[in-house]
Write a structure and sequence with these properties.
The chain has a domain of 47 residues. The protein contains three helices and no strands. α2 crosses α3. By secondary structure, the protein is an all-alpha fold. It starts with a helix and ends with a helix.
Length: 77
């Protein structure tokens, strides 16, 4: 009976500690853009970082191609 009571008390105490701290950090918006976060992940040694780098390079390549096509379209009458 005492063991069961101590387990219940432990669960209640741990549940109380798991709440929000009230300093507002959980609601604070991110200061990094998605690209900055992806770049940081790509530069890290985490598994899958090489794939993130490849995706960033593909995105840059597509953006450069679109800029070239837009400039060609503006030059033609």
């Amino acid at each position: 009976m005492i063991m069961r009571l101590s387990y219940v008390l432990l669960v209640v105490v741990l549940a109380g500690c798991g709440g929000a701290s009230g300093d507002g950090q959980a609601n604070r918006p991110d200061t990094l853009t998605r690209r900055q976060r992806d770049s940081a992940i790509g530069a890290s040694g985490l598994p899958g970082a090489q794939g993130v780098r490849g995706a960033i390079e593909a995105q840059d390549s597509a953006a450069a191609r679109n800029r070239r096509l837009d400039s060609i379209a503006r030059e033609r009458p």
